[in-house]
Specification:
The chain is built from 3 helices and 3 strands, in the order βαββαα. By secondary structure, it is mainly alpha-helical. The chain has one domain: Ribosomal Protein S8, Chain: A, domain 1.
Length: 90
């Protein structure tokens, strides 16, 4: 019997991905993803590669990259918009 983690959720192939991020951001992203238990690696002068085993890991990846690549003003605006969304709009 397959485990829940092995279930097909109908998402496109998650697997391995190469991230196109600034070189000075990739180590911060690498360390944060590693702390979250998301497998990632990069060699010197090579882009960061990430193994995305699940939709939850994809969301975590998106969140980590977003935190390091958008301005503090844009982060504050996005968070403020989240607080203003009424439950009826969800």
């Amino acid at each position: 019997m397959p485990s829940h983690a092995d279930a097909d959720h109908g998402f496109p192939s998650l697997g391995r991905h190469i991230l196109a991020v600034k070189w000075n951001d990739r180590w911060q992203i690498y360390h944060r993803l590693s702390a979250l238990g998301i497998r990632c690696w990069c060699s010197p002068y090579q882009p960061l590669q990430v193994e995305i085993p699940s939709p939850a890991a994809a969301i975590q990846l998106w969140s980590v990259v977003r935190q390091l690549t958008i301005s503090a003003q844009d982060q504050a605006r996005w968070l403020n918009n989240c607080w203003n969304v009424s439950p009826a709009k969800l």
